[in-house]
Amino acid sequence: MKKRLILSALVLALLFSIFGIGIKVFSADDYAIGKQEIVRYIDSKGLNLKEGTPEYFDFLNNLLWGEYNKDLQTSPYFRKILKYAAYYYAHPEILYPEQCKDCLGDVITDYNIQSTTWVYNPSSAVSYAYQYSIEGGYGQNPNFPSFRTSGGDCTNFASQVVNAGNVPIDGSGTCSSYSTITKWYVNRAQWWCVQSRWAWSTSWSVVGAFYTYQSQYKNNATPTVFAVSQANSLRASAVPGDIIHLETGGTKWHSTTVTKKQNGEIYLTYHSGPNGYDCVDHSLQAIIDNPDNNIDHFFLLHFH
Questions:
Q1: 233, 109, 94, 121: which is closest to 172 by C-alpha?
Q2: What is the pLDDT of residues 241-258, one digit of tens each?
Q3: How do strand 198-201 and strand 176-178 relate by DSSP bridges?
Q4: Is 100 a domain residue?
Q5: Residue 24 in domain
Q6: Eight-class DSSP state of 286
Q7: Digit-coded pLDDT (tens) for 268-279
Q8: Facing residues of 272 across strands?
Q9: 3-state class (DSSP) for residue 190
């Protein structure tokens, strides 16, 4: 698994160089050191956590939201810890059912499917985000899968939001997950599928693949990158219905929806916040002002 993740990091580095994104991807040494420090911390606290489990992903999610900063910030390897956590958390595929080898089938007809002409409806996107989020709880549309126990539900939810805003489904699957950045879909699995009740592309559920598909492969959205110090520029640029990804240490690891803009401030709604709960209309300033904030950049996607 370690070799596969490191290989994926090298592939991402190539993609960043091709598309001109100036975010540095960490090295294999960073990965190894960050992992080593996290293992030491887990052992020192007597936590019963094993790599590759839902509980481990929950731990990394809370680590990225800053829950363990007071303990870990004293480490000279704190930035490497964050880099490892962000990269590992952003690759939940390890928790998915075994991927089938032939998962692309006919285009489905019971969702908002691919069309040649469409116009994004941000109001519908925002309404959907509110309808299926519960502050401090777990909002869920039963017509879609939940990935809360499979590495996080934030990008699955962001995909639902923009689909509600008219971004059309592109393709379909037959059984479980399919790793791709050239299709974007979710649908009920075929009756014979024993791995999962659902079929989906990783571009639907994984933040980096979602970003690449929407902004680079299909050009459904215009991307802009903002450092935390450029928060005012982000506020000026973002509008309700936009998606904002959070990035730490070179890896995009979380997806949020802009649901409100008021008095110059933007408010974000998302699944899989701290402790896995939904967050509704959390201000950008509150996220930035959090003393345990570990965010380096915001990746804004404005859909057209």
A1: 109
A2: 999 999 999 999 999 999
A3: parallel
A4: no
A5: yes
A6: H
A7: 999 999 999 999
A8: none
A9: coil
Q: Last residue of a domain, which of 76, 95, 114?
A: 95
Residues 138 and 77 in one domain: no
Residue 141 and residue 21 in one domain: no
What domain count does the chain have? 2
Residue 105 domain-assigned? no
Domain range enclosing 90: 2-95
Angle of helix 54-64 relative to helix 78-89, nearest 10 degrees, comes to 130
Number of C-beta neighbours around residue 137 at 10 A = 10
Could you report the per-residue pLDDT of 41-72, keeping only the tens digit for each? 999 999 999 999 999 999 999 999 999 999 99
Contact yes or no for 59/47 (Cβ under 8 A): yes
Burial 281-293 (b: 16+ CB within 10 A, else e): bbebeebeeeeeb
Q: Where are the beta strands (DSSP E) in the chain?
A: 176-178, 186-188, 198-201, 221-227, 243-248, 251-262, 265-270, 279-283, 297-303
Domain annotation covers residue 143: yes
Amino acid identity of 272?
S
> What is the rounded distance in angstroms from the CA atom of residue 55 to the CA atom of residue 150?
10
Residues 144 and 288 in one domain: yes
